[in-house]
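Sequence in, structure out. First:
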Amino acid sequence: MADLAAPRFEEFGPVLIAGMGQRYNDETSVGIPALWQRFDPHIGHIPGQLSGKTYGVMWPLKGAEGFEYVCGVEVSDLSAVPAEFSRLTLEKQKYAVFSHTGPISTIRDTLGQIWNQWLPASAVRIAKRPRLEIYSAAFNDSNPIRGLAADLKKRTQRQLGHPCR
């Protein structure tokens, strides 16, 4: 496993995302690649699509175990998006952006380094907002560079591990 490179910090959003979504938990999250396979034929054909970038957007479910995951593209307007697609509006937020290199099958190793090594040693905490995976138009498993963006807020020593107000 390669060492995790330091993230870059970026403002991102607002952005409109249209795509396909499903609920998962730790056991069923192995199904996320199948969701991408179902979505792939729609890339480039969604009304108002702005670029070839694709996004994985994930957020925890309120009052339930698990999370919602949407694979999608950025669009200019949600009103023209067909009814069978999920629609998201991501507000402007600061993100820590990490790069994952290597086969997509090793993405959990990179995520583990972010959550178990970088985050506990950093001066930031993750905000309770959607997390992003950002794929360039050139992404495929042969060209596996992808950005992993974690929504964040500054934390102080006093607030370590507690929500900032």
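Second:
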Amino acid sequence: MTNSAAELPDDLAIRPPRQERSRRAWARVLDAGVALLEDCGYEGFTIAAVCQRAQVPPRAVYDRAPSKDALFLAVYEHGMAAIRADHAVFEDPDRWRGLPAAALIEAAVREVAAIFGRHERLLRSVVLISGVHPEVNRRGSVHSRELGERFTNLLRPLGSQFAHPQADAEAALRACFSTVFSALVIRVAYGPGFAADPVDDEAYAGHLARMSASYLLNPAMAAMPAPEMPARGERGRAPARVVDNQRERVPTEE
């Protein structure tokens, strides 16, 4: 498993508690920090607010974390640990045994959507802050790629059933995950009505699941050619239109 928090500089490193009482207090700090991020986002994340929620004095934080950013990253990893624990389902053979190809793909996509749904409030905060916080962006990329590897490892044995040429099967599978993941990130960060009329989470997960199975297994989807695009700056070439499934060139005036 990748360690996203490896080799931190001193100003971000956490001094681990040694005594049981200190460990309990630090656990309350981390839990309170996650709850604060869920409720108030990064804008409301202050050491004072965390201490108030955790019911600990400021020293309980400053003894462990040298700065607000160090505390925030520790809270981030604490929250992400619960999300990463959910990723383990993709390596549980009993969860997937006996499913035919289409059902397996759809179930895997629904599981990714379910993880986003269970942790929606925390993910919203960390996705939004990742655009301006390089370290959160870096760690988020590590966690996302880890989930992508588990998803693709689960579905890779289906490669011979994919409608795509064998040489393109891996790229198609990774494109499938990337599309699903990106759609869920946008939905969590900006809400279900950001890019289209909103639908409930169950319906949306079903749409993503069926789209993914169709993309990977449907020969018509795999064989669909990319549209012809004129070269930039090309002149004198008429745009194409489709008439009775045949391309014809539309006359243009010179």
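Remark: The chain is about 60% helix and 5% strand.
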